[in-house]
Amino acid sequence: MEAAYTSYIAVMGQKPAPMLADYAAHLNQDTVFVAERISDQTASLLAYAIIIKKPSGYWLENIAVSPAASGQGRGSALIRHLEDYLRQATDHYQLYTNIRMTANMAWYERLGFVETRREREDGYERVFYKKILTTPTH
Fold first, then answer.
1. What are the distances in angstroms from CA 55 to CA 59, 83, 122?
2. Which of 8, 53, 63, 134 would be a feasible disulfide site paired with 49, CB 3.0-4.6 Å?
3. Which residue, among 118, 120, 136, 137, has the nearest Cα to 128 in the 3D structure?
C-alpha cells in the first residue's frame, strides 16, 4: 500500500485515504483478494483488492498494484477475479477514486465503469463510478 500510494501525496497535498485505512479491520470484516508471486518458499505481494458491502451495495474499497508489478495486467486480472466472485451476489458494484488520480480514472473507464457523480467526502474530492456486471465471455 505504501509503495502504491506514496507518489500521490505530492499530487493531492495529503495522504490518500487508502494510506489511512484500517487494514486489520478489512481483513477481519471484508473480502480481500491478493495476487502474489511465490518463488523459493518466498511470497511477495503484487496486488490486492478489498470489497466491502454497504447498505448501498458492494464497493471496491481499494485496489492497489505494487509499482514493481505495474503495467503487467495484475490489476486487470484481479478485477476479473473479483467480478467473477461478485456475480454470485450482485449485478453491479461501485467505487470511488480521488479526482487527482487521473490515471486511475482512465483505467476504470477502460474497464467499463461509468462515472455517476463527483463530490467532496471525508476531506477528499472524489469521483464515483458504477459498473454493471455482464456474463463473462471467457
1. 10, 19, 18
2. 63
3. 118
Q: Is 119 exposed, middle or buried (0-12, 13-18, 19+ CB in 10 A)?
A: exposed
Nearest to 97 by CA among 2, 8, 35, 29: 8
Domain range list for the chain = 2-132
Three-state DSSP at 119 gives strand
C-alpha 32 chain-centroid distance: 10
Q: Would the pTM of this model clear 0.85, i.e. be above it?
A: yes
- Cα three-residue angle 42-48-52, rounded to 5 degrees: 140
CATH node for 2-132? 3.40.630.30
Q: What's the pLDDT tens digit per position in 48-81?
A: 999 999 999 999 999 988 877 677 788 899 999 9
Q: Could you tell me the maximum CA-CA distance found in the chain, to the nearest angstrom?
A: 47
Amino acid at 10: A
Alpha-carbon distance of 132 to 138, in angstroms, equals 17
